[in-house]
Design brief:
Elements lengths: L22 E7 L4 E6 L2 H9 L12 E9 L6 H12 L4 E3 L1
Parallel strand pairs: 2-4
Antiparallel strand pairs: 1-2, 1-3
């Protein structure tokens, strides 16, 4: 009898895997405050916030305006966007989710 060799080949990815969500989004509430977050599916995340499922945003139908949805890059990250909005509008007017 011949011995059976069980070898497994694994593919090595050329690019390192990043676990950072793909997009940063900014929405404005009826109160004037800005909500900033990150997600792979920002439309679903924004809908969840607007439905009242996020404890940081009390109540349903609070979103007045979608300010922007941008892809995260080395220059644009959640931290940099939050810092920009805090510097421009003040810490009391920015909610990070």
């Amino acid at each position: 009898m011949q011995a059976i060799s069980n070898t497994t080949q694994t593919k090595q990815s050329t690019a390192p895997k990043t676990y950072r969500p793909d997009f940063v989004f900014v929405v404005q509430l009826h109160s004037g405050k800005f909500v900033i977050g990150q997600a792979n599916n920002p439309s679903k995340r924004i809908a969840a916030i607007n439905s009242g499922l996020n404890p940081s945003v009390k109540g349903t139908l609070q979103i007045n305006n979608i300010v922007g949805i941008k892809e995260q890059t080395e220059q644009r990250s959640l931290i940099s966007v939050v810092n920009m909005f805090v510097n421009k509008y003040g810490v009391d007017n920015v909610i990070t989710v």
